[in-house]
Amino acid sequence: MDRILEYIHNLNLRDKRNILSSIVSGSLFAIGWWIAINAAVAFPENNELLKASHACGALATVALIMLNSVTNSQLRGDSMFSDGICGTSFVRIWVFVAFLMSFGSLIASFWIFFDFYVAKDRNYIPGLAILVQNVFLFASTMIFKFGRSEDLWA
C-alpha cells in the first residue's frame, strides 16, 4: 500500500491535464446521453417520459459546443483575431449566452423533475434520468472548459 501511495505522490500529471480533462468530460457526456436514451427506450409513452424534456439535453449539448468553441485568450482579448465582427465583445456575448443555455437547461431539468414527476406522484425514474443526464452534461461542459490549460497547446 505504501508503494501505491508513493507512486501516486510522485506521479506528474501536469503535462497530462488536457488529456485527463478531455477523457473525464467525454465520459460524462457519453454516460449522460446514454442514460437519456435508455430512459427513452424504457419509457416510450409520453405520459411516462415527456419527450419535450429531451430539449434540455439538446440545449446543454449546444451550450457545450458554444462554450468550448472559443479560447480564453479570445475572451480576454489577447488573441490576434480580436478585430471585426467576431471581436472581444462578440465572444463575451457568445460565452454569456452559452452559460445561460447551460444553466438554463440544468434548471429546467430540475423543474421538470420536481413539477411533473415528484409533485404529481408519478414514476420518478424517467424524470430522474433526464435530471442526471443534464447534471452530467453540465459537469462535462465545465470540466472541458475549465479543466484544460491553454499553456500546453503551444
Number of strands: 0
Strand content: under 5%
> Which stretches are low in confidence, meaning pLDDT under 50 for 5 or more residues running?
none
Tell me the Rg in angstroms. 19 Å
**Main sheet record:** none
Mean pLDDT figure: 87
The dominant shape is: flat
Care to describe what's here?
The chain has helices at residues 2-10, 17-42, 54-67, 72-76, 88-118, 125-146. It is an all-alpha fold and 154 residues long. It has one domain. α2 (17-42) packs antiparallel against α6 and α5 (88-118) runs antiparallel to α6 (125-146). The model has no long low-confidence stretch (mean pLDDT 87).
Pick out its properties.
154 residues; mainly alpha
Show the helix and strand layout:
Elements: H1 2-10, H2 17-42, H3 54-67, H4 72-76, H5 88-118, H6 125-146
Helix pairs in contact: 2-6, 3-5, 3-6, 5-6
Quick synopsis:
This protein has helices at residues 2-10, 17-42, 54-67, 72-76, 88-118, 125-146. It has 154 residues and is mainly alpha-helical.
